[in-house]
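Researcher: Here's the sequence for the chain we discussed earlier.
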Amino acid sequence: MPTRTADLALLGVAVVWGSSYLATKELATGDTVFGVLAMRFVLAAAALAVLIGPRLRRVTAPELTSGMLCGTVLWAVYACETYGVTRTSACNAGLLMALTIVVTPLLHGARGVPARFYAAGSTAVAGCVLLTQAQGFGPPGIGDAVIGAAAVLRAGHVTLLGRVTAGRELDITRMALVQLATVAILSVGLATVTGESVNALAGGMSPGDWLLLLYLALACTVFAFVVQVRAVQRSTPARVSLLLGTEPLWAAVLGAALASDPVTAAGVCGAALVVCGTVWGQRLLAPDGRADIRCQGGVRKSRRNPAGGIGRNVNY
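Model: Thanks. This is the structure I predict for it:
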């Protein structure tokens, strides 16, 4: 994949991620979170299994155990994210999830984090505060709070993924499939326990709903993962971070343009601070221009940025 093509593909990932909040909001309700997740990740896992085909036979025990562990945390991320977006705007959800970039390096410890990163992080946090107060002063809504929890869990997932793969040659594509399958299994189980009938939900979906579900499963999950694995080999952390860091901007733009999310002066200022803070922070964590994740044939190598600059370079 040439560098220019890789950059365009990564920008495409940022766009589909930014649009995923609006798609989820249109599809899910507070009562159908687990059912929607079950269908989304069953489809995503099946599609990725078809893509990797024969490589499935070579899955190892460490890939299974690590994938299941990380997949459980990933399920918690998506459960919070999906419920949260049903209780707040798509714009707020996308921007608040950018807190992942701030929290992830801090989970690795202060050693190796540039002092200026704290200024960048404070800028992003100030933007998030403005977002939650965009409609008037008061405590954050339940949706904003749950999305904030999802961002912290996402940072925990990134940190855990880095630790379980450090120094080990694991096939990240097979691990990704195990994680997607874990999310699917947990979601099906929770949907059954909570009385969210997946069959009834599927039967009541319109053609438009099915298109949104396929978009979330194939574009926002499988396509995004495949592009990252390929493009990260042709780019640098600074370029990857800059391109993927535009995700909250796309979430804000699409939310305002397509869902008529309210636009206020405080909200615009907050969105600008979030985007500036996260992009600034990402660039500070990859100052040397060398890739912190090297994939050869889909195998995750052990080289990592000591500041935790994995960010969202390999995500699902």
